[in-house]
């Protein structure tokens, strides 16, 4: 009896365990690990917010945050070694992907890299070109700094490179002349130490890299797609919260994760991150394939990657496009079934005909009536399908516009960032002159005697009349020539202040007046006053030129994007010269190595649709540039032939082989690699031109290719 009672209790316990264990495994959170690429700081605020605010837990994730004490080294291997691993990375993921590591970028947090190059404001390094032969500390994996230096004509071999110790005191104490770091963190350390510095960003030269991103492995996405999507959404939600509640998150980091940096420094870092992340203007996590191609191009110029590597599978798509193959299969099966049914019915009717002619005639008449109704239904279905295809074509044209903007994003960013960077830099110099130097300049001028005033006016007139900027090498040669010519003057020492001021003010162009100017006891003050005024005047000139350049780019972009009602029909009057010039303005950055020859005749207006014609010009110009590898000659010719205007776009590329000339206008025919074109460009161009009453042809040519478009001439 007691034995049965014990057995019964054991059965109850085993049954309870068998029932509860599966439920515990079902409702437990999935464990994943996120590897940070540095010590705990505000740079990773979004991940702390997602963890502490329960965003990860809301989607069933138990996330472990691991800081790194050696930077990004080793993180890629950990992420791809097993599932459940995520990491914080940067642009180096493109190189890791090419090296064979199956990493996938889930989203970009920093739309602009915080990497800058710091100089001491009062040092002998006044421009990026003065770095030659100087001591420099460069952070590993900051390739945008190296690319910036190369674009300015400076190779790493021209520098004295020292190992980066991540100690701002190295620059403060003069152990190095330049020091790479983040504008979000090191700037605070320099300000706190009362150290005056100048920061140069690669964006001034059009090198606009992404900053931090977060990534995982292909295997994680393949095996756990829902977990990856949940992790991404919770992470982006955490970043939105962190950037909107910076003080709260700064206190959280300090109290719970690390007291290495004060709350004041964490808040400074958050404020500096805001314009780099752009949480209001740009969707959190957004990344543009065109920007990654721009980064690939920079790495190619540095010799670190081949050109145009395939980005397929590298950028995560949370909402992949719908696969419509099932619709095509269903339509084919339905059509086949209708055909089979019709064949069976026909055979049955034929058999009945041999049995009874009269009944067959009546039955055949009924069948013909039913077939007619079916044909009417089928005809209506085809009409509906044609309307859907027309709408799809319009949507495709709209997507083509966006695709062009994606391809030109890096170029337009360079065309805008360069003048805007010059405006910002010149404005700061003007502000420094007005606040710190203007009063001193006025006071000095007032105290000049009559003879010194005459000298001051002579130097000022020469300086403002002939503005000049001299490179370092040319300046050194000129100094040696002046020192040799005026060796009898003590003030013309090769490395003296007078020599430098003679160069900066442009007085060297008046060698007959140099001795007269230097005779004054206040000659150095005269030259310094003119140098300060000349610098302010040069800043004003730079702002004017840069503003006009930025306005030109914006005007071209607006003309391309904004469609007017009268230009939306196929019988509008189009100014071909204006529209083609607009397209060339958008391609300005891509035409740096291309010679553009424009032969516009007297008749430049045609009848057509402006938006559709712009798509045609973009397609033909883009094909020509691609065929030339963006280097060669592009000719655009307008001719009047009776009632036609003929537009010819001629490139000096590889041309079109004879074997494919008859296929280039066929849909889905392309010679580009997979992922770079659908083969619809020329097919759509031909259809649009025909709709406008024109025609497009590939004309024979021995070198390159010539595509000509005939359009109806506008008669007035």
What can you see in these coordinates?
Pfam families: HATPase_c (PF02518), NMT1 (PF09084). InterPro entries: HATPase_C_sf (IPR036890), HATPase_dom (IPR003594), His_kinase_dom (IPR005467), HisK_dim/P_dom (IPR003661), HisK_dim/P_sf (IPR036097), NMT1/THI5 (IPR027939), Sig_transdc_His_kin-like_C (IPR004358), SsuA/THI5 (IPR015168). This is histidine kinase. Pathway: Cofactor biosynthesis; thiamine diphosphate biosynthesis. It comes from Leptospira bouyouniensis. The chain has 716 residues and is of the alpha/beta class. The chain folds into 4 domains: 27-112 and 210-301, Periplasmic binding protein-like II (D-Maltodextrin-Binding Protein, domain 2, 3-Layer(aba) Sandwich), CATH 3.40.190; 115-205, D-Maltodextrin-Binding Protein, domain 2; 429-553, no CATH class; 566-712, 2-Layer Sandwich (Heat Shock Protein 90), CATH 3.30.565. Helix content is 54%, strand content 13%. The protein has helices at residues 2-27, 45-52, 55-58, 75-81, 93-98, 143-151, 169-172, 186-192, 218-223, 225-244, 246-257, 263-277, 289-301, 325-355, 357-446, 450-465, 472-485, 497-505, 511-518, 523-561, 576-586, 610-627, 681-691, and strands at residues 30-35, 61-66, 85-89, 103-108, 115-120, 135-137, 160-162, 178-182, 197-200, 213-217, 572-575, 594-599, 605-608, 632-641, 644-651, 695-699, 705-712. A 5-stranded mixed β-sheet has the order 2-1-3-10-4, sandwiched between helices. It has a 5-stranded mixed β-sheet with strand order 7-6-8-5-9. A hairpin with a 5-residue loop joins strand 16 and strand 17. The longest helix is centred in the middle third of the chain and has 90 residues, at 357-446. The chain is flat. The termini are far apart.
